[in-house]
TrEMBL record:
Keywords: Hydrolase. InterPro entries: Class_I_gatase-like (IPR029062), Divisome_Glycosyl_Hydrolase (IPR052177), GH (IPR017853), GHL6 (IPR028212). GO terms for molecular function: hydrolase activity. It comes from Paracoccus tibetensis. Gene3D superfamilies: 3.40.50.880, Glycosidases. Pfam families: GHL6. This is Hypothetical glycosyl hydrolase 6.
């Protein structure tokens, strides 16, 4: 019989309502929508997309209901209507779950004049007008506006409407606020003046990062308590970016956020499609069992060029949704403006939501399971401003892409949520550039290695304490068998590394004696129980052209391997991940793949053969394995939007079985077809004839006894 435990109708208004909210529609209204948009048209969209939950504009910057809170700006087109209430009623008529969206990041002139203390202040002491709409004012996120005034609006919405949660957008603030209240509170809490630079080496900046985290965490708690005081089964749900868990105390998130919302609405610039699934893995790095929702925009996403009321291509939307779903994210689409002048987004969203519905039963019955993990360097990234994190994450993104190219499934572990038991789930741990780690974190990783865990350590990992101050030695030196022999230099040009001897790490280079090096190099020495398959070529000029030749022979270690103890280790003391992410040199991809496969020491849980590029996820349960394949084979894979889908296949999967497994069978969850299974060396061999956007192989077997 079908499992009805997650049926939205059965979960309505219950403490576990959110477990039935698995496909979301978000409608963000424009101010003139009350006289322009059609509620009935949107109820039809709910039906067509198969949505079972809705997030609807309620108030904050603009109220879309007849608010009675002073200075809560009503839409000037509201009249005697209640568009928010009508949408809530329409969604509830379909047995949908409902969240009310509020946006506290800006206020109008009347509120700013009556309460200047609500307005954010820049470093020069000027009240901040809105950067995109100077007629209004940016609010201070850390003071009285969010902590004293906005709760009045939250209470009114929760009291007057049949909703399950309040969702806040743009609530974390926009940089440092230099208002009198922030200056006074920060000084009292830290002893510092507010910092003027975003420098992780500056003690005042580090204190600001910690103080901001405390203020935002307290706000999550306060708003959640305000909601639950009126509706005990409801919650406050903060909007989050892909790395947003760094902004909060983890125990607070666990206590107050039953599910998490990631606001990464689509690709921009040269982002690959697998970035959607990366969001799921990064959240799982901290909270492995909490539902996570991925917001997808129906329009193009670019940080500089903004067309929020627009439509991107259908294949782009469907693929982005599919990649998130394949890695366990619940789909959510957002439409800005209630009027629909261009309806071309509706069918692709319905297609993406349909993919999720097709694989949802198999996802619900399995858990993420693979052997390779990347350390999410929260300790390091917390010291960087949001605007700096994209560059700070370049090493990790380079390793991610190298593994995707290699067809290797991987997960993340957050260094803030790392435990011995969690580490023991994996055979290989990769540190792309986790520069800042505490002594306790280093000790936990070293002890895991002594239990048989295998390490791939790159860049400047473990070369600084948790507060950013440099170490005299790498915190993992004893495991890696290396020692620092100098400071890190860079950025450099025209660097190379030379192959030495015959080692699995320098296999596959077809006779090349040297390959491209990195941009930031750290000098190390290697211990007697290590091997050095690559050496640094001493860097030399890149101009004039007549001077472009090496002066000295290569003698210093550039890659060090070790098989001491019970685990293997690879040390690459240069920024191979960031360099690969920047230039995509195939030699760097090969070196990363060789290092991970050598550290793994055996075939991975799932091996893939066949034409095309796929983002792979692996999940398991007793007697079952689920392998999802997202087809990334596309000439537009590195620049949105994808305009056409290029089917790939046939694909042969070799899937590891549990010891003693009998009578395996396989079904393709998207196409709904069974496929033959053959056994080879204790592994199941399954051929997938073709993958358009998404396919999922659900392999089951009888367990011993």
């Amino acid at each position: 019989m079908p499992d009805t435990s997650l049926d939205p109708a059965r979960l309505l208004r219950s403490p576990n309502w959110y477990r039935g909210a698995t496909r979301w529609t978000q409608l963000t209204l424009a101010e003139d929508d009350p006289v322009k948009f059609s509620v009935d048209e949107w109820i039809d969209v709910f039906r067509r997309t198969g949505s079972n939950a809705a997030c609807l504009s309620a108030g904050g910057y603009v109220a879309y209901y007849p608010t009675k809170v002073p200075f809560h700006y009503r839409s000037k087109w509201l009249g005697d209507t209640d568009p928010f209430g009508a949408l809530v009623d329409g969604a509830r008529s379909l047995n949908m779950h409902v969240m009310a969206r509020v946006d506290p990041h800006a206020i109008h002139n009347d509120a700013a004049q009556a309460h200047p203390e609500w307005v954010a202040v820049d470093a020069e002491g000027n009240p901040r007008r809105h950067w995109a709409y100077p007629d209004v004012w940016v609010t201070c996120a850390y003071g009285d506006y969010n902590n004293d005034y906005m709760p009045n609006i939250v209470r009114e919405i929760v009291r007057e409407y049949d909703i399950d949660a309040v969702f806040a957008n743009r609530w974390q603030g926009h940089g440092i606020c230099y208002c009198d209240a922030c200056q006074t509170r920060f000084k009292a809490a830290s002893g510092f003046d507010l910092p003027r630079v975003t420098d992780p080496a500056d003690a005042a900046w580090r204190a600001w990062v910690a103080w901001r985290r405390e203020r935002l965490t307290a706000m999550v708690v306060q708003w959640d308590r305000e909601v639950q005081a009126i509706r005990p089964n409801a919650s406050f749900i903060p909007n989050m970016g892909g790395a947003s868990l760094m902004e909060f105390d983890l125990a607070t998130i666990e206590a107050h956020c039953p599910f998490l919302v990631v606001d990464h609405q689509g690709r921009h610039g040269l982002e690959p499609v697998w970035m959607a699934g990366r969001n799921a893995k990064r959240i799982r790095a901290t909270f492995r069992d909490r539902p996570v929702v991925l917001i997808t925009s129906v329009g193009p996403e670019e940080p500089v060029h903004r067309w929020k009321d627009s439509v991107t291509t259908g294949p782009e939307m469907a693929t982005w949704i599919a990649d998130g779903a394949a890695h366990g994210m619940l789909p959510w689409f957002t439409k800005f403006n209630g009027v629909i002048p261009d309806p071309r987004w509706i069918d692709p969203v319905a297609k993406g939501f349909g993919f999720h519905a097709q694989i949802e039963p198999a996802l619900a019955a399995t858990q993420p399971a693979c052997e390779i993990a990347i350390l999410d360097a929260t300790t390091t990234l917390r010291l960087h401003d949001l605007r700096q994190r994209d560059a700070a994450e370049a090493d990790e993104k380079g390793f991610c892409h190298a593994l995707v190219e290699a067809g290797l499934a991987f997960e993340f572990i957050s260094d803030h949520a790392m435990t011995a038991a969690l580490l023991d789930r994996f055979k290989v741990l990769i540190l792309p550039n986790a520069r800042c780690l505490s002594d306790a974190q280093c000790a936990m990783i070293a002890e895991w290695s002594e239990r048989g865990g295998n390490l791939v350590v790159a860049g400047e990992s473990a070369m600084a304490h948790e507060d950013g101050t440099p170490r005299k030695e790498c915190g993992l030196a004893a495991v890696l068998g290396t020692q620092l022999a100098g400071t890190t230099r860079g950025p450099l040009k025209n660097t190379y590394v030379e192959l030495l001897g015959n080692h699995p790490l320098n296999a596959g280079y077809d006779g090349a004696r040297r390959i491209i090096g990195g941009l930031r190099l750290t000098a190390i020495t290697a211990g007697p129980d290590t091997e050095t398959p690559f050496l640094y070529v001493p860097d030399f000029p890149d101009l004039p052209m007549e001077e472009v030749y090496p002066r000295d022979s290569a003698t210093k270690p550039a890659v060090v391997t070790r098989e001491g103890g019970k685990g293997r280790s690879v040390h690459i003391p240069w920024n191979i991940g960031a360099t690969f992410w920047d230039v995509l040199a195939q030699d760097h991809q090969r070196l990363i793949e060789n290092a991970v496969r050598w550290a793994l020491g055996a075939p991975s849980m799932v091996e893939i053969r066949g034409p095309g590029l796929f983002d792979i996820a692996v999940r398991s349960a007793p007697g079952a394995r689920l392998v999802t394949l997202v087809n990334l084979t596309n000439p537009m894979a590195w620049k949105a939007p994808i305009r056409e889908i290029y089917p790939a296949g046939p694909i042969e999967l070799s899937i590891a079985l549990d010891v003693g497994a009998r009578s395996p069978s396989a079904r393709l969850a998207v196409s709904g077809k069974g496929v033959p299974v053959t056994l080879r060396d204790g592994r199941a061999i399954v051929t997938v004839p073709q993958v358009d956007i998404l396919e999922a192989v659900h392999l089951t077997w009888q367990e011993p006894g």
